[in-house]
Amino acid sequence: MPDTAFRNDPALKARAIADIADTPHPGWTNVATDEDRLACAETFGLSANLISLLSVASNFPYWDGSKDFMLECLGAISVGTDSLDLARQWAVSRWYDGDHAVGPVLAGTPAHAVAKAVFIAAGDSGERTVASKTWRQFRTQLAAIEGLSPPEAANADIAAALAWDETVAIGVYADVWKAWQEAIRIGKDFAAGWSQESQDQILQEIRDASIEAHARVSPRFGGEIVSEEAHAAQNTEINRILEASPLNQTRLALLEYWQSGTPAMMATRETSLATVRAACSGTFADIRKTMVENPTAL
Amino acid sequence: MTSIEQISEEAFSDRVLRSSMPTLVDFGSKSCGVCLANAPAVQNVADEYEGELSVVKVDVEASPGLANTYAVRSLPTLLMFKGGEVVDRMMGHLTRSSLARFVEKHLESGE
To answer: How many other C-beta atoms can be found within 10 angstroms of the C-beta atom of residue A64?
Structure first.
């Protein structure tokens, strides 16, 4: 049954927008419980799953731009449209849409067929019920796949996040958002030569080097530091040893990557949010039809 | 919806250690924001695996002895018990998908 946006009532849409702008219902927030979401959904005539996607994607109200984002999205939703389908269509479009599509990353991997089946089933779920057992089988199959690179595994995780019954799992599409953002991050790190493993290893090496430098220096300061001057001198000596270490070049390179990565991730976030805005305005095509009829493009 | 019981130290042996089913114990507290954020995922997993998995909660403020016994140093921590023993643990923020993968490793059936 369609989850008719604002129960076909323009006045209810106006109330929802006013609520966000004034004193938002707890169900709109990123930290809302399922009960809060359901109450908000009932109050304003929207799918709890769509509300969850909007609030999690924008981290409402904790990101400065989140209120504007929520207002834009609510404003874009047509009164009477199927609001659950908006969230569903957004999630399913992750398979092929934009620079961070799941399908191309998984192409040629053992995860491709299962992941694609998940996305097609999710696209179908608005028209026919997909059994809970089927979703579970998909997740089990995805979890059993070995030999994927970190970006491939992260994209397979997006499919696993999608493999839930939307009528039971409030927030399934918000989880898809989280998994998708994580996959984008992992993909960027991997492409830049900084896998999570390599970053963890470097951080551990820095910790080990720091402990070693401290052990070398502290006996010369009498073991126990009693004055601020001695403490500062000891730290200066430790820093001098660390900066002279070959590891320091790697540390600086990692720091530079993190600093340059922040603006890039913010830009990516804006692009990602644009996909949700587009979903709210219902601009996605019939995705299930696209995937079934044009599989070679995916 | 499956009811997730919050259990006391006194009930822990019966409900967890002597349980015939694998049991997921969610250690948290009312003041832990991540615990609250995880709650929908824990509830979904309890519903999804009802009959195969038992899920209970422990409030560490009410049951500090259990937190100490099982070396719970940060919240939230989820412990998987089988046959009275801790067989796995998971900490921090989770999604229903990551929790399901954690749980399914320890269930008898993959179906």
So the answer is: 8
Least CB-CB distance to A33: which of B36, B100, B111?
B36
- Which residues of B are identified as catalytic? 32, 35
Residue A214 inside a domain? The answer is yes
- Please give the model's pTM, rounded to 2 decimal places: 0.84
Considering only CB atoms, which chain A residues are within 8 Å of B92? none
Residue A236 forms part of a structural domain: yes
Q: What is the pLDDT of residues B29-85, one digit of tens each?
A: 988 888 888 888 899 999 999 999 999 999 999 999 999 999 999 999 999 999 999
Looking at CATH, the fold of the domain delimited by B5-104 is given as Glutaredoxin (3.40.30)
Nearest to B97 among A31, A33, A161 (CB): A161
CB contact under 8 A, A175 and B40: no
Domain extents for chain B? 5-104
Q: Judge whether A224 lies within some domain.
A: yes
The 10s digit of each residue's pLDDT in A233-291 is 888 888 899 889 889 999 999 999 888 888 888 888 888 999 999 999 987 656 655 66
State the pLDDT confidence band at B110, using cuts at 50, 70 and 90: very low
Write a three-state SS string for chain A.
CCCEHHHHCHHHHHHHHHHHHCCCCHHHCCCCCHHHHHHHHHHHCCCHHHHHHHHHHHCCCCCCCHHHHHHHHHHHCCCCCEHHHHHHHHHHHCCCCCCCCHHHHHCCCCCHHHHHHHHHHHHHCCCCCCCHHHHHHHHHHHHHCCCCCHHHHHHHHHHHHHCCCCCCCCCHHHHHHHHHHHHHHHHHHHHCCCCHHHHHHHHHHHHHHHHHHHHHHHHHHCCCCCCHHHHHHHHHHHHHHHHHCCHHHHHHHHHHHHHHHHHHHHHHHHHHHHHHHHHHCCCCCCHHHHHHHCHHHC
Contacts of A292 (CB under 8 A, 6+ apart): A120
Query: CB distance A132–B111 less than 8 Å?
Result: no
Least CB–CB distance from B40: residue in A33, A143, A178: A33
Residue in chain B lying closest to A157 (CA): B97
Cβ atoms within 10 Å of A155's Cβ, excluding its own: 31
What DSSP state is assigned to residue B34?
H
